[in-house]
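Let's sit down with a protein and look at its sequence and fold side by side. Once you have written the record down, we can walk along the chain together.
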Amino acid sequence: MTHRMRTESYVCVDLETTGLNPKTDKIMEVGAVKVENGRIVRVYETFVNPGRPVPERVRQLTGICDAWLQSAPQMEDVLSYLLDFLGDSVLLGHQVLFDYSFIKKEAVNHKVSFERLGIDTLKIARKYLPDLESRSLDCLCRHYAIPHSPHRALQDAQAACALYDRLWEEFGNTEDAVKMFMPKPLLYQAKRDTPITPAQKERLYKLLVKHKLNIEYNLDTLTRSEASRYTDRILAKYGR
C-alpha cells in the first residue's frame, strides 16, 4: 500500500444540535477543519441560534445554554459561509452521516443542492477495533491519547482529524484499507420544510392567549409540521 491511497484533502465537520433528528431538531453549533495535502489550513466555528430553547439533557451534555445562542446568527446567515467553507471537499467525521444529514436538511430548506462523499472514522474504528468497550469519539481519543474536550463542535472536529491520522497509521497497510478509508457517497433523503401558514399561526396564537401560555419559540420561524405538533400538544393538554 502506498501513501497516495489515503485521502489527504478533506473537511472534518462536527455539529452540536438540539436533538438527534434532522427532521425536527436544529443545529446550534458548527465546527469544521479544512485539511489540504495532509495539513490543517483553516478552521471555522460558530454558534447558531436554533430558534428554540436548548433541551436540558443537551445543555448538560454540551454545556451550551440559551444565553450563548440568543445573539448567535440564524442558520440562513451561516449556511452560505459554511457551504463555501466545505466547497466540494470530501467530508470526514465520526458518524459523519449524522452531521451531513443536518447540513443537507438546511441546504434543501434553502433550495441548495448538497451531495458529498464522506469518510466515517466510526466505521473504520468498528472494523479495526472491535474489542474496545466503546468506539465513541471520546473513548477512542482516550485509547490513542488524543487531547479532547467532548461535545463541542470544533474540538470534536479536531479530534476526529487526529483520530483519522492515528487509524491510518495503524491500519493503513491492511489488506482492506482501500475499502475502509475510501470516501463513499453520503446518502440522506431530505424533504424541504414549508413555513407555518397564516391560518396555523392565528390558531396557535389564539390557543396560547386563551390558555395563558408562555412560549419559548418564535411563531414566525416555525414550519408547518412544527406548528401542527405544537397545536396538537396544546389541544391534548388543555383542550380547545
Notes: The chain is about 45% helix and 15% strand. The longest helix spans residues 153-171.
